[in-house]
Amino acid sequence: MCSFLLAGFAFGQEIAPFDASGLVKLGDKIQYGIYTICKIGDGIYQISDHELHQTEARLGATGSAIYLIRGKKKAMIVDLGNNYKDGYAGDNLKPREHGAKEFLAVVNGLTGNLPIEAATTHMHVDHDGMTGTLINRKGVTFWASDKENVADIKTQHGIDLSVYTPFTAGEKSFDLGGGCIVNTFLVRGHTNGGTVFILKKDGSVFVFTGDALIPGIRPTEQVAEDVQKLVDYIFANFSPYERYAIRVYPAHAHTISEEAKADVVFQDWRFLQDMATLTKGIVAGTWQEKGSGFHFEEEIKSDSKGPQGGQGGPGGPGGQGGVSGYMFYGVAKVKMTVNQTK
């Protein structure tokens, strides 16, 4: 059952207080300002701004999901969404009058006075946007992969890069207390430092991927190698029962194929395996083999050369005169350009 708390604002008034009492069962939701807060685990929440439609914004128009994990001693926030505090001119994203207050109300309402580890999956404007809102909040430490271009935070939001502490994905873990430990894993492709965060808790495995596995990743040897390493890591470190209980949470709802989506924004263990097969098949060219299980759905015609941020790639389809669309394998998909002559 979903409960909704609408933050009604009148001119000159403060925002309504955030009340998390409606988040009792898994799947319970509260609407507060632009944010939809959903309980996805015990002390684990998805904070989504997908309900906001600034159609003139490029990234902001699709919205972004933030994940909050509460342990016994600390809380952790994975990604910081779009910048509704100041807006972002580079994306035509407009600020909201109460953007900072709304976000702080949700964060403080879910974490209380716990210290916060705030980590980004990567340094793009729809994933580090609310950094400035938390800078003056007591007890917040900001983290970003040492392979990311942390200087982007200055360009994007006018924030000094020293705010962020670098970590090495695969080596860094976050102990939030009470056995709540979040591990990190490097998946390059969308960015060089793309980080996946993995938490095993109460019989479930939560995998927070940001944009590391979204449609539009560049299917090069690099991303195919890292996705396979992620699958191998999970095989080596989780039992069959635990693998069955995996939930993969991306940052954007539109990245999930209809076959995997149902009515909840997460994917499962088969998605990770299918994505490994898909990216390897694109790189190796086996997608063209009869009976391979791959299929391509055309989106738009393209006369341009390959794909920025995600299409084509060494050993894979792409190039001039291609057809833009999605390559599918099982429940995994990648946006790309395929040559018309095969």
How does this model look, in words?
By secondary structure, the protein is of the alpha+beta class. It has a domain at 1-168: Metallo-beta-lactamase, Chain A. It is built from 7 helices and 16 strands. Strands 1-2-3-4-5-6-7-8 form an 8-stranded mixed β-sheet, with helices on one face. A 5-stranded mixed β-sheet has the order 9-10-11-12-13. It has a 3-stranded antiparallel β-sheet with strand order 14-15-16. A hairpin with a 2-residue loop joins strand 1 and strand 2. Helix 4 (221-237) packs antiparallel against helix 7. The longest helix has 17 residues, at 221-237. It is globular and about 60 Å long.
Describe the structure in brief.
By secondary structure, this protein is an alpha+beta fold. It is 19% helix and 27% strand.
Topology:
Elements: E1 29-32, E2 35-41, E3 44-48, E4 65-70, E5 75-78, H1 99-111, E6 116-119, H2 131-134, E7 140-145, H3 152-157, E8 164-167, E9 173-175, E10 181-186, E11 195-201, E12 204-210, H4 221-237, H5 240-244, E13 246-250, H6 258-261, H7 269-284, E14 294-301, E15 322-329, E16 332-339
Parallel strand pairs: 5-6, 6-7, 7-8, 12-13
Antiparallel strand pairs: 1-2, 2-3, 3-4, 4-5, 9-10, 10-11, 11-12, 14-15, 15-16
